[in-house]
Specification:
Elements: H1 3-8, E1 11-14, E2 22-25, H2 27-30, H3 33-46, E3 51-57, H4 60-72, E4 75-81, E5 90-96, E6 99-105, E7 115-123, H5 127-138, E8 145-151, H6 157-163, E9 167-173
Parallel strand pairs: 3-4, 3-7, 7-8, 8-9
Antiparallel strand pairs: 1-2, 4-6, 5-6
Helix pairs in contact: 3-4
């Protein structure tokens, strides 16, 4: 499945969650069996060969991350919102456009020095992805690469990720935000 075919499966919802926003809804892509399989196959081609685990960012990163981990034959590490894991965690706070947020992981899921590939459905400003990479590194992972299904280049997230010395690849890009 080509990138253009994947892009055609993403529904655009105008004025959600607020006026002027074009929300890129991946539920139509994941509901399509060829679309989901095609996205995972393309992500797998971009993945480093020495990945020990895939970390997916809550919530839609779980969809692509878990499927990619299964495809690659490695484990999956969920990067959760604060308070969602039932075990001791480590976390990092990061800035949102209008406030703060926190993400957490179970550090016992990270093998020190092993490569962990970060995956999410979309990169916008990059704040969450940068925080997740930082958190995985604090847990001892080698995390220097992230894969996204969608990039919104005008919001600068992938550029911020690369400016921090990290590799960011996306399957498709949409103009606007």
């Amino acid at each position: 499945m080509t990138s253009d075919e994947l892009k055609a499966l993403v529904r655009t919802v105008p004025d959600f969650p607020s006026a002027g926003i074009l929300f890129r809804d991946i539920t139509t892509l994941v509901a399509d069996p060829r679309g989901l399989a095609g996205a995972i196959a393309q992500l797998a081609r971009l993945a480093p060969s020495d990945v020990a685990a895939v970390a997916g960012i809550e919530a839609r990163g779980f969809i692509f991350g878990a499927a990619l981990a299964a495809h690659l034959g490695c484990g999956f590490v969920p990067v959760r919102k604060a308070g969602k894991l039932p075990v001791p965690t480590i976390g990092v706070d990061y800035a949102l456009e209008y406030g703060q947020a926190r993400i957490e992981i179970d550090p016992t899921l990270i093998a020190a020095g092993r490569r962990v590939l970060l995956v999410d459905d979309l990169i916008a400003t990059g704040g969450t992805a940068l925080a997740a990479a930082q958190l995985l590194r604090e847990a001892g992972a080698q995390c220097d690469h992230a894969l996204f299904v969608i990039d919104l280049p005008e919001l600068g997230g992938a550029a911020r990720f690369r400016a921090a010395g990290l590799r960011a690849d996306a399957l498709i890009a949409f103009a606007g935000h």
